[in-house]
Amino acid sequence: MTGLTPYLFLDGTAREALTFYQGVFGGELVLHTYADFGRDTRPDAIAHGMLNGPVDLFATDADEGDASLRVDGLLFALLGTAEPAVLEEWFADLAEGGEILDPLQVRPWGDHDGQVRDRFGVTWLIGYQG
């Protein structure tokens, strides 16, 4: 793995979120509970989860005292990271239970892009050339 990989601190929804993202992007999902790491305070909560595939993500169920995900002024850009048909499918899948902020459409400069906020509060910019 190389490059930037987002690590989401979620409020008890890490398993649900990573499973959702695996359904959208594909890839291999690995989940480790707090019990797996010898911590019994919340044995079934996710201590560390990884999605490895065309889109890599990490997530955890925020521990007591840790802030959980609140995102303002940030989006994850998936510009040209897959074939146009795949990107359009990802956009539609991320919109399920979420909110389309700006429809995926052709822009005056000829490229396609759009923004969607998924059900976990993550905003995605998805697009492709031509």
UniProtKB/TrEMBL annotation:
InterPro entries: Glyas_Bleomycin-R_OHBP_Dase, Glyas_Fos-R_dOase_dom, PhnB-like. Residues 9-124 form the Glyoxalase/fosfomycin resistance/dioxygenase domain. Pfam families: Glyoxalase. CDD domains: PhnB_like. Gene3D superfamilies: 2,3-Dihydroxybiphenyl 1,2-Dioxygenase, domain 1 (3.10.180.10). It comes from the Bacteria. This is VOC family protein. It comes from Propioniciclava coleopterorum.
